[in-house]
Amino acid sequence: MLSFQFLILALQEVSLAWRGFLTVEQIGRINSFLKRAFKYGLCSQLFSFLDLADDAGQTLFNSML
User: Fold this and answer.
1) This prediction's pTM
2) Is 46 helix (H, G, I), strand (E, B) or coil?
3) In sequence order, what are the residues at sequence separation of 6 or more whose Cβ sits closer than 8 angstroms to the Cβ of residue 55?
4) pLDDT in tens, 32-53
5) Angle, nearest 10°, between helix axes 49-64 and 2-18?
6) Among 64, 59, 61, which residue's Cα sits nearest to residue 9?
């Protein structure tokens, strides 16, 4: 479980750099992986890549203020 949480944190951190370069299909594949992880109980919350990217952007913006 800890390694999956690390993966979510890593996705959140790199999402700011990757977001502009990923295609809709690639984002869909990442979201499918996150949905399966939720379905099989690896996480207690359903994540989406764009939500992770938005959260990371907001956190970065707030840290600059």
Assistant:
1) 0.77
2) coil
3) 12
4) 999 999 999 988 889 898 888 8
5) 70
6) 59
Total residues belonging to the chain:
65
Helix%, strand%, coil% for the chain, nearest 5: 75, 0, 25
**Encoded amino acid at 37, one letter:** A
Please provide the DSSP assignment of 23-37 as one string: -HHHHHHHHHHHHHH
Where do the structural domains in the chain lie, given as residue ranges?
A: 2-64
Confidence of residue 2 (pLDDT cuts 50, 70, 90): low
How many C-beta atoms lie closer than 10 Å to residue 56's C-beta?
Answer: 19
